[in-house]
Amino acid sequence: MQLHVNGKEYSIEVSGNTTLLTTLREHLDLTGSKYGCGEGVCGACTVLINGVPVRSCITPVGSVQNKEITTIEGLEQNGKLHPVQEAFLEVDPFQCAYCASGMVMSSVALLNRNPSPSKQEIMDAMQSNICRCCTYPDLVEAIVKSIKK
Ligand code: FES
Ligand code: FES
């Protein structure tokens, strides 16, 4: 199977029914995307497919061939972090940070489709990403900071 991940081409042997999350973590060594619920509910496994956020834990890898897959590892460009990553580092909203990768990817997707969201729009867009440590106010602050970068 041919996969396009973070601007690179990969040729791997894997069943098309394998989840994208398992493929990324176990076949490509891209472990930034996390396994949380495994049921498409928590958002810890969020990656971008052609710029759209998807839950990689319930996405068969066979369905994303010939699509551009972006993981948290692919946000940095030429040694420079994505503005969302920089803002999250500055605000430092996380406690355990298990949700961090999914939060950042969902934030990037939000700002790609709406470069200047209101706080309400941010909360609406992020409500399906779950943080067990309940860092939501600081997460919103980090996304607001991203807008100004
Ligand atoms: S691990 Fe994929 S949504 Fe929870
Ligand atoms: S910081 Fe712990 S789950 Fe979000």
Describe the protein in words.
With 149 residues, this protein is of the alpha+beta class. It folds into two domains: 2-74, Roll (Ubiquitin-like (UB roll)), CATH 3.10.20; 83-147, [2Fe-2S]-binding domain (DNA polymerase, domain 1), CATH 1.10.150.120. The protein is built from five helices and five strands; from the N terminus they run E-E-H-E-E-E-H-H-H-H. The chain has helices spanning 20-27, 83-91, 100-113, 119-126, 136-147; strands at 2-5, 8-11, 46-49, 52-55, 68-70. Strands 2-1-5-3-4 form a five-stranded mixed β-sheet, covered by helices on one side. A hairpin with a 2-residue loop joins strand 1 and strand 2. Helix 2 crosses helix 5. The termini are far apart. The site of one FE2/S2 (inorganic) cluster (FES) has 12 residues, from loops. One FE2/S2 (inorganic) cluster binds at residues 35-38, 40-45, 55, 57.
CATH superfamily of the largest domain: Beta-grasp domain
Helix content: 25-40%
How would you classify the helix and strand content by structural class? alpha+beta
Strand order within the widest beta sheet: 2-1-5-3-4
Number of helices: 5
Q: Tell me how many strands there are.
A: 5
Global geometry: globular
Question: What key attributes describe this structure?
Answer:
single chain, alpha+beta, Ubiquitin-like (UB roll), DNA polymerase, domain 1, five-stranded mixed beta sheet, 5 helices, binds FE2/S2 (inorganic) cluster
Write the layout of secondary structure elements.
Elements: E1 2-5, E2 8-11, H1 20-27, E3 46-49, E4 52-55, E5 68-70, H2 83-91, H3 100-113, H4 119-126, H5 136-147
Bound molecules: FE2/S2 (inorganic) cluster (2 copies).
